[in-house]
Amino acid sequence: MSLEIKVDTPQGSRCLVSLHGRLDTHSFEQLDHALAPVLVSHPDALVLDLSALDYISSAGIRSIFKARKSLAAHGGKLLVTNLQPQIQKVFDIVKAVPMDSVFSSMAEADAYLDTMQRKVLEGNVEDDEYS
Questions:
Q1: Which of 10, 73, 103, 112: disulfide with 15, CB 3.0–4.6 Å?
Q2: Is residue 65 situated within a structural domain?
Q3: What's a Gene Ontology MF term here (predicted)?
Q4: Which domain, by its residues, includes 19?
Q5: d(C-alpha 80, C-alpha 99), whole Å
């Protein structure tokens, strides 16, 4: 199975990217290519919806880590949502994305983003807790 990538129109400073299929040595360059224009726009948050991702290899993890590093250089965050159990296990093993950036659903990720924005407006920018 190949990789299908859907990049949604950015909503404000957030961009949603959905992955379907396998992110591996044969498809990671597809993801890098799809994320390149998103990353140069310096979004505050890039949300990866992995609900339809069936497999991820170390090459896929490297692509995600590279995107995270690019975002962090400009103060942006990478958020990962809807991980299948096998994908969650890989993330647990390699700790490629801090666990506070992995969410069980888009609603949980949106709640986090809403809280972070509210904290900025209130002058409290520490993001260690979001509940």
A1: 10
A2: yes
A3: anti-sigma factor antagonist activity
A4: 3-122
A5: 9
What is the count of structural domains for the chain?
1
Residue 131 covered by a domain: no
> What CATH number did the domain enclosing 16 receive?
3.30.750.24
Local structure of 106: helix, strand or coil: helix
Q: Is there a domain that residue 127 lies in?
A: no
Question: Does residue 130 sit within a domain?
Answer: no
Compute the average pLDDT of residues 72-80: 92
Strands (DSSP E) along the chain, which ranges? 3-7, 14-23, 45-56, 77-81, 102-103
| Other CB atoms within 10 Å distance of the CB of residue 104 | 11
Calpha distance 31→1 (Å, rounded)? 15
Residue range 10-38, pLDDT digits in tens: 776 889 999 999 999 899 999 999 999 99
What is the tally of helices (H) and strands (E) in the chain? 4, 5
